[in-house]
């Protein structure tokens, strides 16, 4: 079986970075949790995808990001469609609701701050 990393093309790398940034913004602004810590992932390839950036997340958001990354890696579509437009709802229902919440918050938040690089991606 081919490693899932063989499917980790540039688009998916970018997707993972955008996802982590969206969740990080949401967590920082909405949770301000005291148990937040640097998101760690037990995989060197993924660390390089995240460019060794320190992403600080609370426990729940950390789980959400892990879930999101796993789903991205397993996405069977190539090119991957925007999740909002995809017919396959691959997120577990609980996570799906939470990621929508994250997008609703972080989309406008980043727009106000002129992060058009991220937004172009979000809207695509
Ligand atoms: Zn959080």
The main sheet comes to: 2 strands, antiparallel
Query: Biggest sheet, strands in spatial order?
Result: 1-2
Dominant shape: globular
Taking pLDDT < 50 over at least 5 consecutive residues as the criterion, the unreliable ranges are none
Order of helices and strands: HEHEHHH
Distinct small molecules: zinc ion
Quote the average pLDDT. Answer: 85
Gap between N and C termini? 31 Å
Compute the CA-based radius of gyration: 14 Å
Helix content: 55-70%
Q: How many domain regions? A: 1
* Count of individual helical segments: 5
SSE blueprint and pairings:
Elements lengths: L9 H22 L5 E2 L5 H6 L6 E2 L1 H16 L18 H20 L3 H8 L1
Antiparallel strand pairs: 1-2
Bound molecules: zinc ion (ZN).
Any descriptors?
124 residues; binds zinc ion; two-stranded antiparallel sheet; 58% helix; globular; mainly alpha
């Amino acid at each position: 079986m081919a490693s899932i990393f063989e499917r980790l093309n540039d688009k998916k790398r970018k997707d993972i970075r955008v996802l982590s940034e969206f969740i990080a913004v949401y967590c920082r602004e909405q949770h301000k949790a005291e148990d937040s810590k640097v998101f760690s992932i037990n995989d060197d390839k993924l660390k390089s995808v995240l460019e060794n950036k320190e992403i600080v997340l609370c426990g729940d958001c950390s789980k959400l990001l892990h879930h999101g990354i796993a789903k991205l890696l397993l996405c069977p579509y190539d090119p991957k469609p925007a999740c909002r437009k995809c017919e396959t709802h691959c997120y577990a229902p609980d996570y799906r609701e939470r990621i929508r919440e994250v997008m609703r918050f972080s989309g406008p938040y980043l727009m106000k701050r002129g992060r058009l690089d991220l937004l172009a991606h979000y809207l695509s």
